[in-house]
Amino acid sequence: MLDYASRIDWIGFYKKHLNVTRVQNGEIIALCPFHNDNNPSFHAKKENGVWNCFGCGESGNAQTFLEKLLGVSNKEAITILKGEAGIKSETRPRKYTIDDYAAAKRLPVDFLKNLGIKNGKTGIIIPYMDESGAKISSRQRYGDTGSGPRFTWARGSKVSLYGLWRLPQIRKAGYVILVEGESDSHTLWYHEYPALGVPGASVFQLVWVEFLRGLTIYIFQEPGVSGKTFVRRVSEALTNNKFEGDVYTLHLIDAKDPSELHCKDPGKFKEHWQAVLDIAEKIDIDKMAKKAENVIPDAPVQLRQPPEWRFSVDGIFAINEKTGLPYCVCRTPILLSRRLKSLETGQEKVEVCYRRDGEWHTVVVNRSTLFQARTITQLADLGVTVTSENAKMLVRFLQALEAENIDILGRADCVSQLGWHGNQFIPGYSEDLVIDVDPSTKNWLEAYHQEGTLEAWLETITPCRENSLFRFILSAAFAAPLLRIVGHRIFIIHNWGDTRSGKTAALKAALSVWGDPEGLMASFYATKVGLERLAGFFRDLPLGIDERQVANSDFTDNLIYMLSLGSSKVRGAKSGGLQSSQAWQTIILTTGEQPLSSTNSYSGVYTRTLELYGAPFDDEAMARKMHELISYGHAGPEFIRHIAKQKKSDIKVLHALFANDIGKEYKNHLSSHISSVAIVATADCLASDWLFGIDSDVAYQEALKMAYDVMQSLEDAKEADLVERAYEFIQGWVLSNNEQFTNNFRTPRYGYTDTVGRYYVFPQILKEALEREGFSYRQVMSGLRNRGLLGVEPSEKRFTVTKRFGDVLAKFVQIELDRGVEQIELDRGVEDIEF
């Protein structure tokens, strides 16, 4: 702060310039002069004069306040402050006089004085007069000091056309030349051309058209964006006010404007200017009015400025209804880029772009958020300078911007999930679909990108495909998008085994098909809700989850069922109603040092899971390469581009062929496992042909061999049956506790056995044994009864029989142990064991 700040009475200082409403808690509170402030939002420190506005976001010290308010240079502001502090200024800033202006523009001083121009305190004063010659406004022009504005309006001024008092001469000429500012008007008047000045490229007002009725109009277009804006704004006003005359545009090649052309050679100005008039270009004002303006050249979208509003790289500005002067509404340039409609919910959203820290950012926003003052403040978290004070004005601007550009703003479809959307697929095969994701999901989306080349990726991956397990895991990544085409249910591939066997490396290789494997890999160290939402986002893409050992069995069983359902849980929304749910149809790839299922896992877990034990790499060096991949994200999109060209029926036929061949070879295996292996084999065959350059017949045989290798390590139907596994447990438990059934002196008693080998077990004892192992007693008993292994008819509701034990009638579970053993022997060829 200035070293003389402590000598200034800041309350008195600000009262000179502002409508101060109160002073409290060491702050001076007033109406802000820099925006249309109805609720005092200007706050200045009583101790040092530092200020900020909670409405428009402006801030600074007393020096910047004076520069902005009075339009003075920094030196002039310091001089004023020194005067407030009682310090005499050593030097006075040089005034800009009418003589300086005349010399700069090469115009006679007397000619300028006849126009009412005179010297002011620090600059020249240019009066604006109406048709009668009465002064309605005045504008100050200052020298080019290198800082501060060159123009300011006097207090109470109302923006108007410059030169209205010359309308009689203009109408007599029958045409008018519209130029920007006063100096070009002075030049043309000096050479006796009819002209009117517009004080700014984007301030032409609708009511001014009435002054131009019956005239031919020539609009002078300066180079650059400002010139284009000027032509469009005038054309727009003429069109909206139904102007019927001819309109032309004028251009200069060797000069910026008429003033510069005159300064180069005043004697030849008329000759040059007449040549310009002779080649004037007639324009269609209706078409010109609809053209977008390149107001901010680096903006992602070019839009027309709505009436009474202006936008630029400096922010959003509203035009004061009384004065016609712009005032800042928001310091962040924010534009609408397109309208979006969600394919999933049908809701319409808006894509917004805004400039922050010199860069443009894009975000998708709900219309209900963007067009309400109480919710648009959420954009403040993204860096937009919107507050509760300026929110209403910003909403008005965006509404006007949309209305003005409704024909320019395109409409596109947006989605919040990857994968198939009709015939389009994200990533790799989409035309104009826009991804609309929550900020928390953005990192996952960004992981779906490409690095390196497809050729480099193929060179690294090809040698590893010699290992059938690696090949199967890799091919599963290609197979995930095929599930929706074939109508296949979701399933899980779990690779487990000892540490350092390359499980994680193989998973990374599979995920590298679609993007950055490090960014795409999830962990079992997550909540079920988190993994559910991730599956919903990935949708038709593989979901990779590493490190099964960090989760317990109950968690994994529930997780398998939840993920295999293919849709998120129905949840209530905070605002009432239900949250929108997500659906997916994919392959989940998991790894761990332990199996995913356990002895007591439900049969559904076995049918939905392919558990593959072993190392996916033949050598550790190959595994290390998967952790160092620098090329990724190419193979998946390329695979999808081929899929999109295929008939869906051809893919279904190929899957059926693989399922048939695998089923013939492995008749006793689960049909669900056969179908799942077949879909991966289908993907392997197609990828071999399209990406790895293998002949289609050879590709089929190699894929079939891989499928056979995998099937050998999978459980057959019996092993996957929960009741069978429970019955095997009961057999082992009964035989290992035989004395509890046969020795009358052994306690506790579990029951007894009869002479033909039937065991009768106390229900509570058997229930405790089963539940200790995690089995459901009721589910197991129901299964055993239905298979005739409990000594009761399958049609009966009970599980027990009543028998006399000593002198007491009691209920027992009758286990047909011999019958079960005989059946197992028939099924599996188990040899007799003698004791």
Describe the structure.
With 835 residues, the chain is of the alpha/beta class. The chain has six domains: 5-84, Alpha-Beta Complex (DNA Primase, Chain A), CATH 3.90.580; 94-156, no CATH class; 159-291, Dna Topoisomerase Vi A Subunit, Chain: A, domain 2 (3-Layer(aba) Sandwich), CATH 3.40.1360.10; 309-415, no CATH class; 449-568 and 581-711, Rossmann fold (3-Layer(aba) Sandwich); 722-828. The strands form eight sheets. A five-stranded antiparallel sheet has the order 1-2-3-4-5. The longest helix has 20 residues, at 671-690. The protein starts with 9 loop residues before the first helix and ends in a 7-residue tail after the last helix. Mean pLDDT is 86; it is low at 820-835.
